Amino acid sequence: MATFRRFDVASAANAPSGTQVAKAPVAQPTERSEPEKLAPARRSGPAPAGKPNHFQDMTDRILARIEEGVVPWRMDWDGAVRWPQSGTKGSPYHGVNVPMLLSQGFQDNRWATVKQANAQGWSIRAGEKGSPIYFHQMIQKQVGEDVETGEPVIKTFPLMRRFIVFNYSQIDGAPQQEFDAAAKTITSSQAERIDDIVAAMGAEVVHGFRVPSFQMDSTGLDRICMPAKDSFEQDSGYYAALLHELVHWTGHPERLNRVFGRDRESPEYAREELRAEIGSAMLCARLGVPHQLENHAGYIDAYLRLLRSDNRELYRASRDAEKAVNLILSHHPELREQIREEATAMAADAKAAGLEEQFDAGMFDYDDELLVDADAVLANFAP
Hints:
Blueprint: E1 3-5, E2 20-23, H1 54-67, E3 85-86, H2 97-102, E4 110-112, H3 114-119, E5 123-124, E6 131-145, E7 152-167, E8 171-172, H4 188-201, E9 205-207, E10 213-216, E11 222-226, H5 235-250, H6 267-287, H7 297-309, H8 313-329, H9 333-352, E12 358-360, H10 374-378
Parallel strand pairs: 3-4, 9-11
Antiparallel strand pairs: 1-2, 2-10, 4-7, 5-8, 6-7, 6-12, 10-11
Helix pairs in contact: 1-7, 5-6, 6-7, 6-8
């Protein structure tokens, strides 16, 4: 992992004074005699009676997996992460839907609603439980009247809608997916693609450091530090570490301008690490990198504290991670075109469904001051 903190004695030798470093700490085994009781995360507001709080639901599901010691956006058992997608449409899901579906642990990355499965002549296997995903639809609501003209004042709100999908392995009749033996490394063409992206981004990568890190400071230092490629057991390990640091690199004030924490115990530290974790998993899925970074047990408790304290943080982290991923991938012409095509297809689907606008969860950049739970918005509102 890589997070921003002050230099310690060992890391200061090769770094300028006053530099902030994103450094990979060494994993330390931890003893946990009893699982901690799950504490409720902060709610986004009171939901009408009988109505679910979507942010609480998505947070509780991920908290449960992390509490079990599982990092939900990884696939440690086969070394690969496959981006979840709508099986019948072939389109990828986005934002918080990515870790939500990865957390279910299915090897097949294809999903379908009951309606989509039935339309294909398939059937959901008896006893199977579905998994929630979230989309946004924009709605308008009168919030008052103009004091001078008497005209109604209309505001647009994001309506969060919950859908249930089933993995193809839960559906009788769905075509089976073929799985190759887990690759231990990447091909030369995959490595070349990543190298081309890094070059196009203009990111400075300096080799000869013991651990991967991202360094920046007020003097203009802005670089990724890596060990030599030959020091990794596999090229895939080198590129997985590099992609993780690239996600940190996007948070620079002149790029996506995220907040970094210097104190390892701070919420800001955990927030940035969570974004880099999810973002690097997304990049590995997109770019075919089979190797995942080592699991650092010390981060599990930090993630638990972070998500328990704010039930919107998973949503925001997933959104920010995909912003970083899109910024990185947009530096490759083929991948940039894929992103554009996916956005166009999503708009076309919304239009075909009679919706003015619809966004896969995470595609809408909420202003936290205006964030509304859809059920609360619609409690006394009839469109």
